[in-house]
Design goal:
This protein has helices at about 15-25, 45, 60-70, 80-90, 105-115, 120-125, 130-140, 150-165, 195, 210-225, 255-265, 315-330; strands spanning about 5-10, 30-35, 60, 70-75, 95, 130, 145, 175-180, 200-205, 230-235, 240-250, 275, 295-300, 305-310. It is an alpha/beta fold. It has a 7-stranded parallel beta sheet, sandwiched between helices. It has a 7-stranded mixed beta sheet with strand order 9-10-8-11-14-13-12. α1 (about 15-25) packs across α12 and α8 packs parallel to α10. The relative contact order is 0.15.
Length: about 350
Amino acid sequence: MKKIQAGVVGATGYAGAELVRILLGHPQAEVAALSSVSFTGQKLSDVYPAYYGLCDQVCGTQEEVVEQSDVVFAALPHGLSQDLAAQCHAAGKAFIDLGADFRLKDEAVYRKWYGGEFRFPALHEQAVYGLPELFREEIRGKKLIANPGCYTTAVPLALAPAVRAGFVSTQGIIADCKSGVTGAGRKMTQNTHYPELNEGFSAYKVAAHRHTPEMEQTLSRLAGEAVRLTFVPHLLPVNRGILATCYARLAPGADPQAVRAAYEEAYRDEYFVRLLPEGRVADIKQVRYTNFCDISLHFDRETGTLIAISAIDNMGKGAAGQAVQNMNLAFGLEEQAGLRLVPPAF
């Protein structure tokens, strides 16, 4: 069987480099072409010495990536993917966007939070939201996939079974989340500078983060009614990981046993979601370098509150790993292909 030719636009960013790492171990795909605005003409292994002898490909242009690939992954900042998606569509190539350009369905919401427009409305109509555990059948065989980000994966997976079953109130949900610093991207900023980050721990974009409407969109779709949540992200002084601690008021008549049974039923056959035994607590250390999402359930009986905690690797299930999972679904491959990655034990 001929291997799928995969191209990565934005290959020298953290998500792009992680895509290359995963694709290098994929049994049915190979890296066909790479591009980078900052490092055009340079080998990827010169930018990331860990890839020396493994991926010495030279970063070319976006046009070369489209021409040489069956599927193009775009690891770009928001606002830069729409033209590229149009190029891929015209060339008959699959396109998986790790940015935010195709995630939101309402153009007015996109305009409010990102300041942009839907430049190709027909493409936005075709785009599917690539969270496989919730929308798998919609993803199969599709050529334009909006890959969710880290928070927008961790929070919905933590809450989906409870919201879908009506076991929690759709109002007053709180998502208290922590992210490793790679989530901020490779470009240096003041708050990610080592002396500022090290030995610190702080919230940012409090109740004003762009991922809020995306999480509400997913959860509202599952609930069949509008879901509103308060989202507060924090920056952890670690490289990788997302920990989402989600609080939701239990609905009348909902008890812990029924809630846990709903999670067991929802995730029983999901390879990448590990519902932890009672008494265990999800920990980002246990999912590093993988596509797993670990979920632990806790109940405050005094206040009638469900506390659902999820842990993912923000570069794995929160970005590149999920993008490859979506590629597998789009091309009819085994969903776990190239993603049976074992987390380090220590």
